[in-house]
Amino acid sequence: MGRSFVKMQNSVSSGIGKGTAVEFAQLGAHLALTGRNQENLQTTAKACVEAGTPQDKILLVTGDICDEQVQKNLVEQTIQKFGRIDVLVNNAGISQRAATIETTDMAEYDRVMNVNVRSVVALTQLCVPHLTETKGAIVNVSSVNGIRS
What's the predicted TM-score (pTM) here? Predict the structure, then answer.
């Protein structure tokens, strides 16, 4: 990569998020990672260390990305530890596999929208000033459910 950069990513406990974090670790990124499951975050951090990012260049923030305080803490702690944000990866997402428009209750709808949309907008708003400064990038991960009616 040629330069040190800070990648901040939400939901890295497993799957695409974990794979993306490991890929950035192989590129030499400093990582700020978040997810709800502390044990899975530790596993991801270990995989990132094995891929090349030193342990002291990994920040873990455990919590629900829908929680505004978790969002603020993630950004503030990232800036405090690394002094910058170069890449934001919005990766958190949930779905309701068996539900249809006829069977989805509004509480479940709100939960899905809070994770998949509201948290992305809120975290992006918090990061934009830092990303503007570093001429950074935002990556929004979606799924095939994004085109499901």
Answer: 0.86
Token pair, residue 71, equals 């969002």
What's the Cα-to-Cα distance from 105 to each of 32, 101, 118, rounded to whole Å? 34, 9, 18
Tokens read off for 148: 């499901």
> pLDDT tens digits, residue range 38-54?
999 999 999 999 999 99
For the chain, the residue count is 149
88: Cα separation from own chain's centroid? 7
Q: Identify the CATH number of the domain in which residue 110 sits.
A: 3.40.50.720
pLDDT band at 9 (very low <50, low <70, confident <90, very high): low
Kindly state whether residue 140 falls inside one of the protein's structural domains.
yes
Residue 1 belongs to a domain: no
CB 86 within 8 A of CB 5: yes
